[in-house]
Design a protein that fits this description.
- Its EC number is 1.2.1.3.
- Belongs to the aldehyde dehydrogenase family.
- The protein is α/β, with parallel strands linked by helices and 514 residues long.
- The protein folds into two domains: 272 residues, Aldehyde Dehydrogenase, Chain A, domain 1, CATH 3.40.605.10; 193 residues, Aldehyde Dehydrogenase, Chain A, domain 2 (3-Layer(aba) Sandwich), CATH 3.40.309.10.
- Helices cover 36% and strands 20% of the residues.
- It has 15 helices and 20 strands.
- The longest helix is centred in the first third of the chain and has 21 residues.
Length: 514
């Protein structure tokens, strides 16, 4: 167990209250005591970032790329220890935690080269003796607020490109993932970042919001990145809008998976199992509703139920499909979502519903169910388009199943909840795949793959209730952390007025071939 505090300009900042980060797989395991800061801590961090940013931006971009390379090497060298800490603190199965750590390395590998490719353009002018240029300039200070379901990978999607582009950062991670966040912070700062360029703030949501509000009012923050719920994202969007800023919002999802009549059902079930119950359904890209053609519904459901019943659940340090819920607040929310199950639904997938205990056992459970926040996987068949289970993100081990007749109906159902993060279609017909892509509103589409899964060089993000159209990862995220600046350089020695002093070319436009 360790004692953690916010770090501003390289100096720990004591907090006024203490949060106890415990393992959800063993709630008696105290991972860290975390001293929580307040709104003032956030403002101090923003001030420190502002003071350090200009000098950091003056470091040549290829050299900043070398710092990113150093971070990637440090993470790789510490990968096993970091993955085990993630598993201990948030209950993610060790195999998934290792994949998450690798995502940091992949992100660093991609962006270290962007330090040599922060290209602008030389643009021809309509005037003689004049040149036009464009440049990417850092935005300034970025405030990054992240959730804890991906406590190390998702922060890297913000931190790495923001730092590479010459910005300074204030990072506020989720309290229940504080130890994982502090480990990432230590690895980043050891990579060669000057003090104040990256600052870490531990604080609860209301204090964070107040600190962000004050920082924006004082002109200390020029970009906000947020990963979390659609409800909070909406409030942050409103706050940023008051200051004429566009935040980078990566929010929730109700991700549909369409299974056509010609689909490979074995593959579709494998994808549904992983995307529906991996990380205990606690991904923004988790499967929400399987929309299955009526002709294959019965067979698909039978196969999915059999696979779910056979899956190993429990101790995340072992080979399991999923472990516990992240924290008590998520367990409470999941209990509420289970209350949305109605009489017209059929509940399948396990030997019970709700929390797994000795009195409500799960067959072949791995470990001690009484020790942590373990829940039965739930398949809800017979979901209707007006059900809350169909319309709302459930963020837990719960998958709905419904049917359709025509592909256009499936597309309508996929769009109906109003989210637009991820989706998938299982089909062997290319025409169906392209029709689905054209009609669905999600920012990410998978064909014969699960709704979950991202690569470091592909844009990640959603639309509608899932985000404001901003994108992370790949070269697309550079537009979040840089601003385009244009420059015109006239060396003619006289004032040349655009659109007015342009050379006119004589032409005989009345000419016609005989």
């Amino acid at each position: 167990m360790s004692r953690l505090a916010s770090v501003v300009a390289g100096t720990p900042v004591p907090g006024s209250t203490v949060y106890r980060s415990t393992s959800p797989a063993d709630t008696a395991d105290l991972v860290a005591e975390v001293e929580l800061g307040d709104a003032g801590t956030f403002v101090r961090a923003a001030e420190a970032a502002r003071a350090a940013q200009r000098e950091w931006a003056g470091v040549p971009a290829p050299v900043r790329g070398q710092v990113i390379a150093n971070i990637g090497r440090l993470v790789s060298a510490n990968a096993d220890a970091l993955a085990r800490l993630v598993t201990r603190e948030i209950g993610k199965p060790l195999a998934e935690a290792r994949g998450e750590v690798q995502e940091i390395v992949d992100t660093c590998d991609f962006f270290l080269g962007e330090g040599r490719r922060l290209y602008g353009q030389t643009v021809p002018s309509e005037m003689p003796d004049k040149q036009l240029f464009t440049f990417r300039a850092p935005v300034g200070v970025a405030a990054v607020i992240t959730a804890g379901n991906f406590p190390v990978a998702v922060p890297s999607w913000y931190l790495v490109p923001a730092l590479l582009c010459g910005n300074a950062v204030v990072w506020k991670p989720a309290e229940y993932a504080s130890a994982s966040a502090k480990a990432v912070f230590d690895l980043f700062t050891r990579g060669g970042l000057p003090e104040g360029v990256l600052n870490l703030v531990f604080a609860e949501g209301p204090e964070t919001f107040s600190g962000l509000e004050r920082s924006l009012e004082h002109g200390l923050v020029q970009k906000v990145g947020f990963t979390g719920s659609s409800e909070v994202g909406s409030r942050i969007g409103e706050l940023c809008g008051r200051h004429l800023q566009t935040p980078c919002l990566e929010l929730g999802g109700k991700n549909p998976m369409v299974v056509t009549e010609d689909a490979n059902l074995e593959l579709a079930v494998e994808g549904a199992l992983f995307s529906g119950f991996g990380t205990a359904g606690q991904r923004c890209t988790s499967l929400g509703t399987a929309i299955v053609h009526e002709s294959v519904h019965a067979e698909f459901l039978d196969r999915l139920v059999a696979a779910t019943e056979a899956a190993r659940v429990g101790d995340p340090a072992q080979d399991v499909l999923f472990g516990p819920l992240l924290d008590q607040r998520f367990a409470d929310n999941h209990e509420r979502h289970l209350g949305w199950i109605a009489e017209h639904h059929r509940v399948l997938g396990s030997t019970g519903t709700g929390r797994i205990t000795s009195a409500n056992p799960r067959k072949d459970f791995v470990g001690d169910p009484e020790a942590g926040l373990f829940y039965h996987p739930v398949i809800v068949d017979g979901v209707r388009s007006g059900d809350r289970i169909f319309l709302e993100e459930t963020f837990g081990p719960l998958v709905g199943v419904t049917t359709y007749r025509e592909l256009e109906e499936a597309i309508e159902l996929g769009n109906l909840p109003g989210y637009g993060l991820s989706c998938s279609i299982y089909t062997t017909d290319p025409a169906k795949a392209f029709r689905f892509r054209e009609g669905i509103g999600a920012g990410m589409v998978s064909v014969n793959n699960s709704t979950s899964g991202a690569e470091a060089h592909l844009p990640f993000g959603g639309n509608g209730r899932s985000g404001n159209g901003s994108r992370q990862s790949g070269v697309w995220v550079l537009d979040q952390f840089t601003r385009w600046q244009s420059m015109n350089w006239d060396y003619s020695g006289r004032l040349q007025k655009a659109q007015m002093d342009v050379l006119e070319v004589a032409a005989d436009l009345d000419f016609r071939l005989s």
